[in-house]
Amino acid sequence: MPDLRATTLVEAPVRTVAGALLDTRLLAASVRGLGVRLSGGSGVLHVGAELQGFVGPVRGRLLVTRADATGVAASLVDGPLPSFELSTDLVETGGGTLVVDCVEWNSPGGPFGRLADIVVGRGLALKILEARAGAVSRRALQMAEAAVVVGAAITRDGLLLVQQRAFPVEAEGKWELPGGRVDPGETEAVALARECVEELGVEVGVGEQIGPDVPLRASLLLRVFSAELAPGSGEPEAREHRAVRWIPVSELDGLDWLPADRVLVPGLKELLSSV
Rounded to whole angstroms, how far apart are CA atoms 150 and 216? Predict the structure, then answer.
């Protein structure tokens, strides 16, 4: 099985680099100049998302198997090769985040397959990794300067609080975590506590960040933190949403999440397993 590895050092925090990796529009744009087309997804990668890739007339379908603060991974589930695996691991260092890319594949047997591995496979794979690494580095630096929307992963007795959107039309009925924008002069913790009072009528204590930064737009990202209800704060109410619910870890995968919040599901599973 041929494999190809490449490393890039990005001068940005690991969670921000992880967020840059989730931007499917960036990934599609970075490989377009190489004659590779990529489509599918909802703008951000999440576990279970499928991407369609085209190299000239040849089509392949990739399934995302990992998308969290440690990096991303995808496997070929339909295409011309017996197997194709892409993984990106992130390592925090004193000088930034080390991005470690690895591509592994099997080509059809025989002399033609071996020749394709040498002449086509490695050459194209290396160009894709180089283009993607440059795009991720640029996007991570852009995200480091972006405005922030904060979200609260509020837990109680092993359950997670979620709320259902009533508007706009494209988001109606979908579920998300409580939160909102950080106003000028606010810290992220102060903004999140304020938003929980405004949206839910409860006070919370804010904990550690959960999962990666999630790209929303070019200059806006979502950052989610663990949280707990303050003693005596009462029961959360749906003041600005259609409904609120407490859900167990078993319902996380099946919930009709907004795309950005679905990215956080692996981190939310880990959080619920630890409380």
Answer: 12
Tell me the pTM.
Answer: 0.87
Q: What is the pLDDT of residues 190-223, one digit of tens each?
A: 999 999 999 999 999 999 999 999 999 889 999 9
H/E run at residue 192:
helix 188-200
Rg of the chain's alpha carbons, rounded to an integer? 20
Angle at 117 between CA 111 and CA 122, to 5 degrees: 160
Residue 217 identity (one-letter amino acid): R
Q: Give residue-wise pLDDT tens across range 126-164.
A: 787 888 888 999 999 999 999 999 999 999 999 999 999
Are 74 and 62 spatial neighbours (Cβ–Cβ below 8 Å)? yes
Joined together, the tokens standing for residue 265 give 């599901």
CB-based contacts of 81, cutoff 8 Å, min separation 6: 60, 105, 106, 107, 108
Cα angle 68-230-193, degrees, rounded to a multiple of 5: 60
Confirm if 259 and 177 have CB atoms less than 8 A apart.
no
Give the Cα separation of 228 and 190 in Å (integer): 14
Which domains are present in the chain?
3-144 (3.30.530.20), 147-274 (3.90.79.10)
